[in-house]
Amino acid sequence: MSKLKKHLILLVLFTASTCVTCASSIAGTTEMGIQQSFHISHEVAILGISLYVFGLGCGPLLLGPLSEFYGRNIVYQVSYLIFFVFQFPIAFANSAAGVSGAAFLSVAGGSVTDIYDDASVANPMAVYTLGPFLGPVLGPGYAGVSQNYAVRNNGHAPPEARLLIGMTGAVIAPIITAYRPYAASAMAGNSFMRSSFAAVFPLFAGAMYNRLGTVGATALLAGLTTLMVPLP
């Protein structure tokens, strides 16, 4: 396989993982609108994001092993098709979309190790790894710009318009070295732990900051992060 083809595959994996994780944060701007429209609490309004992120954690536990038995491509094709379809009934399909989109958070790591040898895998893996962490950062920024554009042109931005923004944004390595033959499954375990914490956190974050204050709550999170540094 030529270097150009390898780099193109890496670009697709990077872009897809960025889109999948971007969808986990882009809907955050809809929270207030959802609360007002449906007269629900903050915890219920944020539940859609939590279920989506939990799906990102659970999906790799199934998709990772499947990709090692049946091949990466068929898992990509089926899961991303399901991910795309579930963006339309997004009001009640967040968890299912997360499960299917999770292929690009675990299986993709296995693909990178498949096409690059031990001597050259480090840099491509670093590039791919940026995607899952870059997506949640880009999501709120894209949503804010789109929402401001809607306000300037329409004079208002109802909750339904914000949900459309979320749909648009969603569509748009030591572990790997150690478990190279089963890289996708190894990354599935890592993704499950990370996404489980991320899914639960929004449900109590507001109450925690109200109780402990900005300094106390942030210091607590910093301490927990430090304690988890040794974990893979």
Automatic annotation (TrEMBL):
GO cellular component, one term: plasma membrane
Subcellular location: Membrane
Keywords: Membrane, Signal, Transmembrane, Transmembrane helix
Molecular function terms, GO-annotated: transmembrane transporter activity
SUPFAM superfamilies reported for this sequence: MFS general substrate transporter
Primary location group: membrane
Signal peptide as annotated in the record: 1-22
Membrane topology: Multi-pass membrane protein
Keyword ATP-binding among UniProt keywords: no
Keyword match Transmembrane helix: yes
Residues spanning the membrane: 44-66, 78-97, 161-179
PANTHER family named in the record: DRUG_PROTON ANTIPORTER YHK8-RELATED, MAJOR FACILITATOR SUPERFAMILY
Record's protein name: Major facilitator superfamily (MFS) profile domain-containing protein
Organism classification: Eukaryota, Fungi, Dikarya, Basidiomycota, Agaricomycotina
